[in-house]
Specification:
The chain is 56% helix and 9% strand. By secondary structure, it is mostly helical. The chain has a single domain, classed as Rossmann fold (3-Layer(aba) Sandwich), CATH 3.40.50.720. It has a three-stranded parallel sheet. The chain is globular. The two termini are 25 Å apart.
């Protein structure tokens, strides 16, 4: 929560005046596709990433006439050291994703840079994840809640 919400907000508040003065700058906030979903056993992570995405969207609206581009990067599964470093002894392991949904780090970086250059509000790397997140975003919340409960029961 400190990194995804507090630090993000404080850094933005500290840097934004200078960026506005330049009249040309870009902010790329690293969110996650998890921010679009209520994921059982990842409630805090999902919620903080939802904050990053919502904050980015609101900030984008606030600075749109200032020459500032704001994008939220929302990757799905990516193989990084995060899984190992972030794992706790007492934590419950969540569902594992099939190999074909993983997007290479290099693709995530390339898509992120291209997205900010093109002033896209949301950047979701990988065609499969784009399609999946489109479906998720069009799915009514009661259906997503049922899916989250199913996952929670599967993990128990």
């Amino acid at each position: 929560m400190q990194v995804n919400m507090v630090a993000l907000t404080q850094l933005t508040r500290g840097m934004l005046p200078a960026m506005i003065e330049l009249k040309r700058a870009a902010i790329l906030n690293v969110s996650s596709s998890a921010g679009f979903l209520p994921i059982a056993n990842f409630a805090v992570y999902s919620a903080t990433k939802a904050y990053v995405t919502s904050f980015s969207e609101a900030l984008r609206s606030e600075v749109h006439s200032s020459g500032i581009y704001v994008s939220a990067l929302c990757p799905g599964p990516v193989r990084t050291e995060f899984a190992e470093v972030g794992r706790r002894e007492s934590s419950v392991e969540g569902p594992t994703e099939p190999e074909f949904v993983y997007v290479p780090v290099e693709r995530v970086v390339a898509d992120a840079l291209q997205g900010i250059e093109r002033n896209h509000p949301i950047v979701i790397p990988g065609l499969l994840m784009k399609l999946g997140m489109l479906i998720v975003r069009l799915t009514p919340m009661p259906v997503l809640r049922l899916g989250s409960r199913f996952i929670a029961k599967r993990v128990e």
